[in-house]
Design goal:
Strand content: 25-35%
Number of helices: 13
CATH class of the largest domain: Alpha Beta
Radius of gyration: 24 Å
Oligomer: single chain
Distance between the termini: 69 Å
CATH topology of the largest domain: FAD/NAD(P)-binding domain
CATH architecture of the largest domain: 3-Layer(bba) Sandwich
């Protein structure tokens, strides 16, 4: 039986990053993955493939709707080759997961293919290709999450689908009904409306992206409506039924009326649930709460001190970069170091176009907490760089403490916000004030100037370009 200092169950961003950091710190490390490829949901059927399709569909939309205004004329019809687009997506996935294979070999991490389950607190059974048992002084649970569903919906994975199936469709839907106005539903909804599908989004809450700042939700809702997507808020889905190649969705609106929607595909995107199936956690004394999450303390230890858990399987936002930070945190904790994570400063991003990104507190959270604040906002359309590229939708909003001027939250929607948010995270990590940001030189012309201008707006309302 092989023995290890650390064994990691699950090879998503949290798991494989934890494995690399453990190996860097001199620990003999193993990683167990039940699928044939490493990388978990993110690399195989989540973050990476969805961004590949978002990129491809964005190119198509630019070619069909915007090239002409730039003086680019393409003779003949521009067509979508969905099979080739899906094939490119898979190539990107294969290259990325192959990169994780390389990193495991480089760091001398043993990889076991199979389902890992606890025999006891220090022994793990592996069922599958590399069947057997291993011993581990410490174990990190990084088994991730799976798409959630509503109890009355029967997924057939053909017409009534999850995000996994939406990434490999054989045809462009005529009408895709999306149940859930969160990140996944909006990103994949945008992919297919760009390719020519009619898209209808049905959301139970009164706005899309209900956990983000209300201003961001409102702005992105405008973008989707401008693209002729049907956006139904405050609708409670009652039934989803397939009849032949048609899907019929019935929902109750805020007036109490039952309305009906018909499409050829229905994407169920109502969130994700922690995945612990087959883990046999009880055998190791690991508690799982009634929400399916592995219980952990501030050190990410489970109820068994030598077993840790990270990522989607524990409380908090289900984000790949959160899982990565937790993976490093646990590795360094096991090594006797004193790492730290500030969960308030883990950014959230939606990869629609315009992109949406945020870090820190929303206005709603500050009001609820009774914290006096000031807000500065700057529109993208006032930027020379935005007008030059034609990306004028969106804004940057900075929230700062009314007394100390410390930045408490940054919320943005616009071109390249997924990258711009890093400036806000950096500033907030060093407890910058709005005036600090306003006095930093930002290159011109750039999208980043919107952050400086929003900081100026939050500092005595002195934005320069509005």
């Amino acid at each position: 039986m092989n023995s290890y200092d650390v064994a990691i169950i699950g090879s998503g961003p949290g798991g494989y990053v934890a494995a690399i950091r453990c190996a860097q710190l001199g620990m003999k490390t193993a990683i167990i993955e039940k699928y044939a490829t490493l990388g978990g949901t993110c690399l195989n059927v989540g973050c990476i493939p969805s961004k590949a399709l978002l990129s491809s569909s964005h190119h198509y939309e630019e070619a069909t709707k915007h090239f002409e205004e730039h003086g680019i004329e393409i003779p003949g019809d521009i067509k979508v080759n969905l099979e080739k687009m899906i094939g490119r997506k898979q190539t990107v996935v294969d290259q990325t997961t192959g990169g994780i294979d390389f990193l495991m070999k480089k760091n001398k991490i043993d990889v076991y293919e199979g389902l890992g389950s606890f025999i006891d607190a220090t022994h793990i059974k592996i069922e599958g290709k590399d069947a057997g048992e291993i011993e581990a002084k410490n174990t990190i649970i990084a088994t991730g999450s799976k798409p959630s569903n509503l109890p009355f919906i029967a997924l057939d994975k053909e017409r009534i689908i999850t995000s996994t199936e939406a990434l490999k469709l054989k045809e462009i839907p005529t009408h895709m009904i999306v149940i859930g106005g969160g990140v996944i539903g909006l990103e994949l909804g945008q992919v297919y409306y760009r390719l020519g599908s009619q898209v209808s989004v049905i959301e139970y809450q009164d706005r899309i992206l209900p956990t983000m700042d209300a201003g961001l939700s409102k702005e992105l809702n405008k973008v989707f409506k401008k693209a002729k997507c049907k956006m139904m808020m405050s609708h409670k889905v009652q039934s989803v039924e397939r009849v032949g190649d048609e899907v019929i969705v019935k929902a109750e609106n805020k007036k109490g009326e039952v309305v009906e929607f018909k499409g050829d595909y229905c994407l169920i995107s109502v969130g994700r649930r922690p995945y612990t199936d087959g883990l046999n956690a009880k055998a190791a004394g690991v508690n799982i709460n009634d929400r399916g999450q592995v219980e952990v303390n501030a050190h990410l230890q489970t109820t068994t001190s030598n077993i840790y858990a990270i990522g989607d399987v524990i409380k908090g936002a289900m984000l790949a970069h959160k899982a990565e930070e937790e993976g490093v945190f646990v590795a360094e904790t096991i090594a006797g170091q004193k790492p730290h994570i500030d969960y308030n400063l883990i950014p959230g991003v939606v990869y629609t176009w315009p992109e949406v990104a945020a870090v820190g507190k929303t206005e709603e959270e500050l009001k609820e907490a009774g914290i006096a604040y000031k807000a500065g906002q700057f529109p993208f359309r006032a930027l020379g760089r935005a007008r030059a590229s034609g990306d004028i939708d969106g804004f940057v909003k900075i929230l700062a403490d009314k007394t100390t001027d410390e930045v408490l939250g940054v919320h943005m929607i616009g071109a390249r916000c997924a990258d711009l948010i890093a400036e806000a995270v950096t500033a907030m990590e060093f407890r910058a004030s709005a005036e600090d940001i306003s006095r930093m030189s930002h290159a011109h012309p750039t999208f980043a100037e919107a952050i400086k201008e929003a900081a100026l707006a939050a500092t005595d309302d002195r934005a320069l370009h509005v």
